[in-house]
Structure formats: structure tokens, C-alpha cells
């Protein structure tokens, strides 16, 4: 632990021990840091060798930010928060993040990325966004990004959240599409998913646009994130499409269960459309509709009725899909960047 006195009554501590860090991360998120999520959080903290910048006033914690990297030249920050959102304290932590980036030779600083990202999400929320509790959807007053702008940060990515009631669609009954050459399937169990892991990662890395690859080294977290999905959801939240003639997987995706929302009977009833991708050679054949429709039928069987998904603000195609499914634009988050 490193300690620095800034002003009378205010101190900055740099925390290195992951268990100590875990004690203060709640300062930077409204999404609960539950004991049952501890292993997922510790996994990411250890992987990224994360540090905490902790602001104390008279010995009491009043502000926090995580800083971490994936051995590249980008420093990431996340779980940024200050009690009562006091401006001078927000500024102090921002200055410490910049100082950390400069002293450790990073070329840029980017965030907020709140690890584990599938649980705690990314970005500062823009004014006018829905503030209800939902997995992966941080909440903050807009003064946070305003203070970052004053310190020289700019917008790197902007993501819109579309959410609402999830309609059921039986894709095999749609007259305008013929899916006879394709097989939609879900892994039967954990072992089969692990056998499909490389196919999933390869399709995602090759075909997702850069705006969809917000979190660093996401491919290294497949098993940890899959464990989370299996624990709170089911194997049907992973889905694949095979070209039966070529005998190869040409599309895939995954949903994330939301453990913070239940129906009146205690069932988890919502998900996040986390990722889906189609090989470019197979686009405009309705495979996105096949994935959505087949998965929607399974989700309804599992009492899932509500869904949320993030779409880059400049992604016209996916925005059209969201609107066509009746989703509503409810939240907007921005990722910031600073050139060191």
C-alpha cells in the first residue's frame, strides 16, 4: 500500500492487495458487490493486476477508482465514484489517474471499464438515462464526465442501451426465410461448450467491429464468464448456427442472465443480449433472426420476459433490429479516453 497526503484531512492510498481492493469497490458502483460474486471479481482483479486509488478524508474512504491494464500501452480505469459527488474530490482522483498513467509509461487512459464487465458494465451514464438497477448498467450523475472533459478526456465510444419486453418469434414459421440448410443448437452441457469455445472466440474476434470490443482481453475470460452464465442462467444462453452442407459453425452468440431482477415468483426474468455475430459470407440470409427467434422461444420457457442490449450509437443495422423488436432506447453510456 502506498500513501500520499494531498491536503489537510485528505489522503490518497494506492491499494495492491486484491482483498483490500474488494472492500472499497462498492464506492464506485451502485450494482451490488455481493459475496456470491466475489470469485468472479477476484479473478479479474488478479488477471489485470489491478490497483485501487483510494481517497480518504480524516481516515474515512470517500472516493475510489480502479486502475489496471492488459500488458499493453493503455491504462484502464473503472469503479470510479466519490461520496456526495463533490467536485474537488472527483478532480483529485482524476488527477491521480493521469499521474499514474504518466509515471508508468502508458500512451492513453481509457474508461470507465468496471470489471468484471459482464456484471458491472462500462461507461459513464449520460443525463436522461434510466437509472434502475440492471446488470452491466452503471449509474452516475453527468458531473463525472464533465469533470473528466475539463481534465482533457474525450469520448472514445458511445453505446446506447435498448431494452424492453422480449417478443417470441418462431423463425421456422417465417415465410420469407428458408433455414433448411442451417442447424440452430445450444451446448448440451459445460463439456460441450468447452469443445465449442475456440469456434465461439474465433468468430467473435474476427467479425465483431472495434466498437464492440470495449473490454480488454475479453477472450481470456470465456470460461469465467461462461461459469457465471451457467450459475445464474442456463446452457441455452449460448447459441450456435451450423451450415449443414459445409459442416461448419457460421454464427454464434451469448446472453447474460441478470441476477438483480426477479419476477413475483422469484424467477430471474431478464437477460442482456451480450454478443452475437454472423460470418460475413453468411450475412443477409436471416441468420440473426434465426438466432434471436430460436433463443427467444427457449428464454420464454425459462421464464425470461425482459431483455436489454447495448448497441454502438453509430451501428445502424443493430439499431434497426432493436427497433424492429420493439425495444426502447433507455440509456446511453460513454467511454472516455485521454492521450498521455
From the helix content, strand content and strand pairing, which structural class follows? Answer: alpha+beta
Please state the CA-atom Rg, rounded to the nearest Å: 21 Å
Q: What's the CATH architecture name of the largest domain?
A: 3-Layer(aba) Sandwich
Count the E strands: 14
How far apart, in Å, are the first and last alpha carbons? 25 Å
CATH topology descriptor of the largest domain: Aminopeptidase
Q: Major sheet: size, sense and barrel closure? A: 14 strands, mixed
Number of domains: 2
Order of helices and strands: EEHHEEEHEHEHEEHHEEEHEHE
Tell me, what is the CATH class of the largest domain? Answer: Alpha Beta
CATH superfamily of the largest domain: Gcn5-related N-acetyltransferase (GNAT)
- The total count of helices amounts to 9
SSE blueprint and pairings:
Layout: E1 2-7, E2 10-15, H1 18-22, H2 38-47, E3 51-57, E4 60-68, E5 74-82, H3 87-103, E6 108-111, H4 117-120, E7 124-125, H5 143-150, E8 154-165, E9 182-185, H6 190-207, H7 222-232, E10 238-243, E11 248-257, E12 270-278, H8 287-301, E13 306-312, H9 316-324, E14 328-339
Parallel strand pairs: 5-6, 12-13
Antiparallel strand pairs: 1-2, 2-3, 3-4, 4-5, 6-14, 7-14, 8-13, 8-14, 9-10, 10-11, 11-12
Helix pairs in contact: 3-5
For this entry, give a set of tags.
single chain; 340 residues; alpha+beta; Aminopeptidase; 2 domains; 14-stranded mixed β-sheet; 9 helices; 14 strands; elongated
Question: What would you note in describing this structure?
Answer:
- With 340 residues, the protein is α+β, with helices and mostly antiparallel strands.
- The chain folds into two domains: 2-160, Gcn5-related N-acetyltransferase (GNAT) (Aminopeptidase, 3-Layer(aba) Sandwich), CATH 3.40.630; 167-304, Aminopeptidase (3-Layer(aba) Sandwich), CATH 3.40.630.30.
- It is built from nine helices and 14 strands.
- It has helices spanning 18-22, 38-47, 87-103, 117-120, 143-150, 190-207, 222-232, 287-301, 316-324; strands at 2-7, 10-15, 51-57, 60-68, 74-82, 108-111, 124-125, 154-165, 182-185, 238-243, 248-257, 270-278, 306-312, 328-339.
- Strand 1 and strand 2 form a beta hairpin.
- The longest helix is centred in the middle third of the chain and has 18 residues, at 190-207.
- The two termini are 25 Å apart.
Amino acid at each position: 500500500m502506498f500513501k500520499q497526503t494531498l491536503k489537510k484531512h485528505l489522503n490518497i492510498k494506492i491499494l495492491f492487495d486484491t482483498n483490500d481492493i474488494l472492500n472499497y469497490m462498492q464506492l464506485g458502483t451502485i450494482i451490488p458487490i455481493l459475496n456470491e460474486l466475489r470469485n468472479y471479481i477476484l479473478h479479474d482483479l488478479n488477471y489485470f493486476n489491478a490497483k485501487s486509488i483510494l481517497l480518504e478524508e480524516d481516515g474515512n474512504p470517500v472516493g475510489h477508482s480502479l486502475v489496471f491494464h492488459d500488458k499493453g500501452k493503455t491504462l484502464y480505469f473503472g469503479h470510479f465514484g466519490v461520496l456526495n459527488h463533490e467536485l474537488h474530490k472527483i478532480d483529485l482522483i482524476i488527477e491521480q489517474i493521469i499521474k499514474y498513467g504518466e509515471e508508468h509509461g502508458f500512451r492513453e487512459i481509457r474508461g470507465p471499464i468496471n470489471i468484471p464487465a459482464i456484471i458491472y458494465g462500462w461507461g459513464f451514464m449520460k443525463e436522461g438515462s434510466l437509472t434502475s438497477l440492471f446488470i452491466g448498467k452503471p449509474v452516475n450523475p453527468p458531473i463525472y464526465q464533465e469533470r473528466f472533459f475539463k481534465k482533457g478526456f474525450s469520448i472514445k465510444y458511445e453505446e446506447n442501451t435498448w431494452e424492453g419486453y422480449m417478443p417470441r418469434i418462431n423463425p421456422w414459421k417465417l415465410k420469407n426465410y428458408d433455414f433448411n440448410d442451417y442447424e440452430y443448437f445450444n451446448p448440451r452441457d459445460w463439456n460441450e461448450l468447452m469443445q465449442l469455445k475456440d469456434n465461439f472466440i474465433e468468430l467473435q474476434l474476427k467479425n465483431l467491429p472495434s466498437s464492440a470490443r470495449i473490454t480488454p482481453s475479453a477472450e481470456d475470460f470465456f470460461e469465467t464468464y461462461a461459469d457465471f452464465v451457467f450459475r445464474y442462467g442456463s446452457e441455452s444462453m449460448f447459441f450456435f448456427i451450423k451450415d449443414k452442407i459445409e459442416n461448419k459453425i457460421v454464427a454464434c452468440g451469448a446472453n447474460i442472465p441478470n441476477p438483480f431482477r426477479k419476477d413475483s415468483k422469484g424467477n430471474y426474468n431478464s437477460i442482456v443480449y451480450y454478443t452475437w455475430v454472423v460470418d460475413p459470407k453468411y450475412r443477409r440470409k436471416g441468420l440473426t433472426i434465426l438466432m434471436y427467434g430460436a433463443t427467444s422461444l427457449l428464454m420464454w420457457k425459462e421464464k425470461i420476459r425482459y431483455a436489454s442490449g447495448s448497441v454502438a450509437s453509430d451501428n445502424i443495422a443493430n439499431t434497426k433490429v432493436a427497433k424492429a423488436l420493439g425495444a426502447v432506447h433507455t440509456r446511453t453510456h460513454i467511454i472516455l479516453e485521454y492521450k498521455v
